[in-house]
């Protein structure tokens, strides 16, 4: 899969300098404890994780202090309007400029009692040393109040948070906030504040609709360069599905030419008297190309939280498709001249589509909407978007009607949609990584955050085989993980095995490993004299089980590791022990 040169750059050292960047939180004034040479996939609080398309994103380093240059401080001016040759053109130009100024002024008045500044203290996990966290970080972003005494902000503003404060305009007081729900795929979060004093004088903003091209919007927030509220204005340039840098998902986004800077994240883009979107990322290397999350995505996130009490995720059909723009491929699969559609090339075994669709089916329609040969569907006035948008707006467990062409015959099929998890997780925010240590061998499930720890050029620097599996392989059954031996903590018991790191674990004592919990269970319940571990590349580890068990405790003590397994595995072993005890009684 290749990415557009305009929007993304490929994962190679020779890629273009222009790339999407998430507009994280505005960094705090004090310098962070980490070096300023951050990998391009990192933000001020978290690592950015690539999706299957494997694009490379860059972000603004939180260690740098922005310098102001003449012509760059503050908001950009009104978009340039060509001079007309007659008085009628001049009047029209003046009217447009006046309207933009009026919209910006109205946005300020509307936002003063609605937009808040968000202060976050966060601490992310160390995936190379999964039993400990990285140093604490402080960052800032924006948010705005909606009905129900809730605050909307970006997920990346509060990702891996340990403490969150909010401050309203004109107040010196910061109030403690709690994260009610967070959706990393859509980069949105809901905050609540218990203090009644905070809500005094606060007004909620209403959600509007998707703006049309060239409609004026005003982005309100607290970007870097100052402490007070800021407003930048611009117009809508494009509406289409775009890669969300934080969650590495493809959802609808609105491109605008208003200046969006670090600290703007989570602030509203206002059109008229309603919210048209939430500022969340921009395109590096380009002038004033920013992106806002549109209202349909915001509503889908909020409604899911209201219905289930937690973030429910965005649905996927679970298929990969190929365009059929070449007439020869259309003829080969029996498409008549009036037919349009896309070719089904891969199907996720965990999806409902796996039981209904077949490889080489031609997908003609989704819920009665014809799909073009390039995979797009009609959208508004002569605009087109990929049909993935129709899928993503469905609620979990909702049914869609799809029309396919199979062996020259048309079929209408019902498919149940639900969120699908990849074999190798794309992100691991707000949770501790799993690990299991036995005889100094550190076992973990493969995740993309782990691969990202290999540095800026992680795609080339990380183990090639693991990287390819992370980006390409599909799960074969629910709960499956790729378990790897990440490193060896040296001891007499494992001398000679120290180079057998960064390899996938295939079998333990002849049993195929399904996931980390399964591996832990096999090892802990071993009754044989020897423990045999089969790895990638036909490598083998053999240990005297009882000696290895005794060595584990001294290795943990030597490296000051509090536990041989992560808390989720401890809970699993404890619950299993209770079950066995009750069965015995």
Automatic annotation (TrEMBL):
* Record domain PDZ: where: 317-417
Which SUPFAM superfamilies is this protein grouped with?
Answer: PDZ domain-like, Trypsin-like serine proteases
Q: Which residues cross the membrane?
A: none
Cite the entry's keywords alphabetically.
Answer: Hydrolase, Protease, Serine protease
The annotated region (Disordered) lies at: 1-40
Q: Which InterPro entries match?
A: DEGP_PDZ, DEGP_PDZ_sf, PDZ, PDZ_sf, Peptidase_S1_PA, Peptidase_S1_PA_chymotrypsin, Peptidase_S1C
Q: Which GO terms describe its biological process?
A: proteolysis
Any idea where the Protease Do-like PDZ domain is?
A: 424-568
Q: Does the keyword Hydrolase apply?
A: yes
Query: Low complexity bias: where?
Result: 1-18
List the Gene Ontology MF annotations in alphabetical order: serine-type endopeptidase activity
Question: Which stretches does UniProt call biased (Pro residues)?
Answer: 26-38
Extract the PANTHER family matched here.
PROTEASE DO-LIKE 10, MITOCHONDRIAL-RELATED, PTHR45980
Record family assignment: Belongs to the peptidase S1C family.
Q: Supply the name of the protein.
A: Protease Do-like PDZ domain-containing protein
The organism named in the record is: Triticum aestivum (Wheat)
What taxonomic lineage is listed for the species of origin? Eukaryota, Viridiplantae, Streptophyta, Embryophyta, Tracheophyta
């Amino acid at each position: 899969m290749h990415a557009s040169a305009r929007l993304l750059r490929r994962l190679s050292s020779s890629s273009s300098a222009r790339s999407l960047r998430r507009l994280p939180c505005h960094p705090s004034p004090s310098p962070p404890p980490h070096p300023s040479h951050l990998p391009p996939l990192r933000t001020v609080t978290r690592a950015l994780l690539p999706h299957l398309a494997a694009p490379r994103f860059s972000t603004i380093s939180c260690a740098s202090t922005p310098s102001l240059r003449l012509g760059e401080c503050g908001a950009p001016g009104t978009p340039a309007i060509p001079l007309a040759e007659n008085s009628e053109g001049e009047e029209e130009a003046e009217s447009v400029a006046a309207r933009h100024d009026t919209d910006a002024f109205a946005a300020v008045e509307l936002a003063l009692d609605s937009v808040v500044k968000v202060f976050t203290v966060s601490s992310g996990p160390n995936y190379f040393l999964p039993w400990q966290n990285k140093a604490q970080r402080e960052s800032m972003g924006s948010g705005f109040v909606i009905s129900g005494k809730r605050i909307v902000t970006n997920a990346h503003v509060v990702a891996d948070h340990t403490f969150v404060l909010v401050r309203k305009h004109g107040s010196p007081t910061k109030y403690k906030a709690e994260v009610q729900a967070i959706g990393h795929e859509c980069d949105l979060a809901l905050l609540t504040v218990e203090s009644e004093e905070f809500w005094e004088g606060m007004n909620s903003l209403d959600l509007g609709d998707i703006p049309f091209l060239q409609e004026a919007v005003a982005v309100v927030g607290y970007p870097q360069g100052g402490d007070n509220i800021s407003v930048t204005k611009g117009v809508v340039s494009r509406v289409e599905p775009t890669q969300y840098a934080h969650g590495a998902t493809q959802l609808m986004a609105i491109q605008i030419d208003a200046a969006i800077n670090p600290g703007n994240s989570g602030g509203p883009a206002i059109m008229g008297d309603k919210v048209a979107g939430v500022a969340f990322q921009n395109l590096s290397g380009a002038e004033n190309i920013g992106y806002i999350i549109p209202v349909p995505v915001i509503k889908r996130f909020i409604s899911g939280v209201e219905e289930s009490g937690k973030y429910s995720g965005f649905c996927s059909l679970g298929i990969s498709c190929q365009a059929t723009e070449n007439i020869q491929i259309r003829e080969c699969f029996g498409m008549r001249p009036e037919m349009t559609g896309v070719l089904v090339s891969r199907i996720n075994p965990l999806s409902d589509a796996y039981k209904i669709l077949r490889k080489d089916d031609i997908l003609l329609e989704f819920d009665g909407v014809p799909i073009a040969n390039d995979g797009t569907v009609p959208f508004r006035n002569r605009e087109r978007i990929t049909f993935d948008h129709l899928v993503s707006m469905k609620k979990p467990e909702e049914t869609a009607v799809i029309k396919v062409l199979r062996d020259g015959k048309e079929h209408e099929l019902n498919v149940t949609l639900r969120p699908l998890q990849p074999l190798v997780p794309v992100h691991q925010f707000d949770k501790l990584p799993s690990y299991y240590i036995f005889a100094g061998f550190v076992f973990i499930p493969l995740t993309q955050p782990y691969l990202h720890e290999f540095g800026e050029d992680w795609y080339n620097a990380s183990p090639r085989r693991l990287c390819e599996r992370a980006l390409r392989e599909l799960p074969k059954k629910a709960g499956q993980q790729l378990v790897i031996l990440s490193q060896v903590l040296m001891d007499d018991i494992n001398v000679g095995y120290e180079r057998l790191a960064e390899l996938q674990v295939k079998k333990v004592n002849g049993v195929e490993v399904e996931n980390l919990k399964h591996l832990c269970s096999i090892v802990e319940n071993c009754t044989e004299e020897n423990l045999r571990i089969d790895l990638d590349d036909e490598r083998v580890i053999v240990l005297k089980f009882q000696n290895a068990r005794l060595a584990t405790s001294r290795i943990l003590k030597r490296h000051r590791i509090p536990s041989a397994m992560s808390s989720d595995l401890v809970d699993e072993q404890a619950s299993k022990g209770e079950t066995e005890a009750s069965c015995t009684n």
